[in-house]
Amino acid sequence: MASECEGKSSWPELVGVQGEVAAETIKRENPHITTVDILLEGTIVTQDFYCTRVRVWVDENGIVISVPTIG
């Protein structure tokens, strides 16, 4: 589904950085993104898909643990 969305759709280079830094980078690199959720690993979320959203999964130290992608 990400292929249907406009702009950059994944950010593998952000794994290992602070979640807040990742969120700002994502917003800067794809202006179509309106929501960047920073979520603690294990948080329960809905399975719906939005081209305007990226979920950034972080550990207890706020470090990105998986590749942020549109969805």
UniProtKB/TrEMBL annotation:
GO terms for biological process: response to wounding. GO terms for molecular function: serine-type endopeptidase inhibitor activity. PROSITE patterns: POTATO_INHIBITOR (PS00285). The keyword tRNA processing does not apply. Pfam families: potato_inhibit. InterPro entries: Prot_inh_pot1, Prot_inh_pot1_sf. The keyword Repeat does not apply. Keywords: Protease inhibitor, Serine protease inhibitor. Belongs to the protease inhibitor I13 (potato type I serine protease inhibitor) family. This is Inhibitor of trypsin and hageman factor. The gene is ITH5_1.
